[in-house]
Amino acid sequence: MKKHTRTTVTGLAAVALLGAVAAYSVLPDGRGGTADGIPAGGSVALDADVPAVRGLDPQLLAALRAAAADARQQGIELRVTSGRRSPADQQRLLDEAVTRYGSPDLARRYVNTPEKSTHVSGRAVDIGPTDADDWLNRHGARYGLCQVYANEMWHFELLTAPGGTCPAQRPDAAG
Cα 156 from chain centroid? Predict the structure, then answer.
């Protein structure tokens, strides 16, 4: 009987965890299973042959790969959770955020419009897991990579020369 109870509790914990991952994978961080080639809630390596990586600005991708090589030497793997997005995917994410948060103003704190999103132009990338975000936040300026939004520790853009100083973070995607 204890074995059955343990299995049930473990099964319920797994279902709860999968639900949390599914909710987290869509918003607020804008990750989602789309035509970008990254599975919902998942990630891909920086050398993956998927639209989300192929569509990144070549200088951004080169900086990310250099950072990833150095991070790997410290046991940290940088993975792409979201890269280049189509305007349609960006609009879908914004629409989902409006539904989730109840207003366009609140949604815009987490998801930019297709016209303003640097993901659409291939000049932004979301990195995971959390230890990789932390590493890149501490060392990214060496490669020109900067965290852009204070509420998105995973969102990076090429905003300074390698070794330069990153600009002050914006509070969120809306400002």
Answer: 8
Distance CA 83, CA 131 (A): 18
The answer, yes or no, to whether the previous bond of 28 is cis (omega within 30 of 0) is yes
CB 137 within 8 A of CB 153: yes
Complete DSSP assignment for 55-88? TS-HHHHHHHHHHHHHHHHTT---EEEE----HH
Res 168 pLDDT > 90: yes
pLDDT tens, position by position, 80-115: 999 999 999 999 999 999 999 999 999 999 999 999
Q: Which residue has the tokens 């998105």?
A: 152
Q: What interhelical angle do 58-73 and 130-139 show, nearest 10?
A: 100
